């Protein structure tokens, strides 16, 4: 049986080297569970999904709710992304939804998560992102679908830095871009 390999595994050593100075912390957080939820936010099914997650589904645009080790990010008026540690059981959400109108789909293989942390993290991300990333505007409890260096991403500010969820097919490209853009902070 083949060993499971994450999309940015080849960059682990280079990420560690770039993180040595303390200005930045770059890492991949591989194999996180990611579930796409689609449901009417005013429905009883949405409430039951929130109960199963331990937090209500956020209804304000560009917000995220964290309960324990699970984060639920608002992606659209009736769409959320649930991010959880590897091994999270997606069948719990399917069971909470039951046969009601909506969907809970495991999209874990679609994206990987890159961590950009440290005191210069937001400066680094600003090189390739047009959003205002200042913590007073884009702090914990926020999320955004945007582009970073022309790659579509979901940004989630967390306590350890900004989690950058990028499609697996763009992970190597974005890892190279982050390392290149980080050069000025590594001196």
TrEMBL record:
It comes from Nonomuraea indica. Pfam families: SoxG (PF04268). It comes from the Bacteria. This is Sarcosine oxidase subunit gamma.
